[in-house]
């Protein structure tokens, strides 16, 4: 008889090493959650995009230039990019040149 897999076990069914992050299952009532709205037009539908940053060898923890993938979202209505200030810094007063139309 197979033993049940304990909560917090690894993805392959083995135990999670001490100090390793554990997945937490959340039960969320989505109809009661607020929609993310575009800061430019108020739209609520977005397209997932990927942006790449080049980390110089000086800043890199391994001492070599690295390519870092950053997930961003673009408003499907107006094309406005929703900025993440922790990655991009404060939003600049510049127009998005990749808008539709």
Summarize it:
With 101 residues, the chain is mainly beta. The chain is built from one helix and three strands, in the order E-E-E-H.
Unreliable segments (pLDDT under 50, ≥5 consecutive)?
1-10
Radius of gyration: 20 Å
Largest beta sheet: what is the strand line-up? 1-2-3
Report the major sheet: 3 strands, antiparallel
Shape call? flat
Strand/helix succession = EEEH
Q: What share of the residues does DSSP label as strand, in percent?
A: 15-25%
Q: Can you count the beta strands?
A: 3
Mean pLDDT metric = 77
Instruction: State the helix count.
Output: 1
Q: What is the CA-CA span between the terminal residues?
A: 63 Å
The percent of residues in helical segments reads under 10%
Which structural category do the helix and sheet elements fall into? mainly beta
């Amino acid at each position: 008889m197979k033993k049940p897999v304990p909560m917090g076990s690894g993805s392959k069914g083995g135990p999670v090493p001490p100090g390793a992050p554990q997945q937490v299952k959340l039960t969320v009532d989505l109809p009661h959650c607020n929609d993310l709205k575009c800061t430019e037009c108020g739209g609520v539908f977005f397209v997932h995009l990927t942006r790449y940053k080049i980390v110089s060898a000086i800043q890199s923890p391994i001492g070599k230039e690295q390519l870092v993938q950053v997930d961003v979202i673009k408003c499907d209505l107006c094309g406005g990019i929703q900025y993440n200030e922790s990655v991009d810094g404060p939003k600049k007063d510049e127009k998005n040149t990749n808008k539709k139309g």
